[in-house]
């Protein structure tokens, strides 16, 4: 892969703010595109100015499901930032509880969430944007019926897109390749997340490694993803100790594929 193909989810660097030197480092490293998060609450004029100074663009962003209640605001913000893909990364947040409990839903609740998310697809399509969902590990844990939450999410609207987090898919106990093939026409982005040791608890952020330092077979998986319409290949680590080292090592490895 070439560096210009590889993006960075800005969430990776959130604890290392301010963002201006972060964007400069990413640009100096050869990254030309980032994925944003929290677009709905961002000062987009200020952030766009910082991105322009570092010659960095953004094709995609994460927004909360709750923010879709005002889709015109999200669309307006995305267009000002030249963003193409709007990605919802989780079901509606549950107040006063751990993040993982957000995903503690039965099949009917997953189906209902998938239906509601899909109902927004046409609004974004009419604005020339795509709407998609980003998985964690929990969507690959079978429900009592044997059906997976990811299927409950994806099967309501053929135009609901998928940003598949390949690392979280594996952490959920699934082989990503069959799912890449199953949803090949839906995949517009992927997250590249690696882990040191598959025998450990992969939900622990300390188990995440630079891409290529872990156990995931990236050449096989990326080769499969490249058969899809995937538009963004995005580095993400939920809590790196040193985002610069993580970025450098990951880019060096991916350039060998």
Strand content of the residues, in percent? 15-25%
Number of strands: 10
Largest sheet: 8 strands, parallel, barrel
State the distance separating the first and last CA atoms: 6 Å
Structure notes:
With 257 residues, the protein is of the alpha/beta class. The chain has one domain: Divalent-metal-dependent TIM barrel enzymes (TIM Barrel). Helices cover 34% and strands 17% of the residues. It contains ten helices and ten strands. The protein has an eight-stranded parallel beta barrel with strand order 1-2-3-4-5-6-7-10. It has a two-stranded antiparallel ribbon with strand order 8-9. Strand 1, helix 1 and strand 2 form a beta-alpha-beta unit. The chain is globular, with a radius of gyration of 17 Å.
Topology, element by element:
Elements: E1 6-9, H1 19-29, E2 33-37, H2 44-53, E3 57-62, H3 71-80, E4 85-88, H4 107-118, H5 121-126, E5 130-134, H6 149-154, E6 161-165, H7 166-171, H8 176-182, E7 187-192, E8 194-195, E9 208-209, H9 218-225, E10 232-235, H10 243-254
Parallel strand pairs: 1-2, 1-10, 2-3, 3-4, 4-5, 5-6, 6-7, 7-10
Antiparallel strand pairs: 8-9
Helix pairs in contact: 8-9
Briefly characterize the structure.
The protein is 34% helix and 17% strand. It has 257 residues and is an alpha/beta fold. The strands form 2 sheets. An 8-stranded parallel barrel has the order 1-2-3-4-5-6-7-10. The chain has a two-stranded antiparallel sheet with strand order 8-9.
Write a concise keyword list for the protein shown above.
single chain; 257 residues; alpha/beta; eight-stranded parallel beta barrel; TIM Barrel
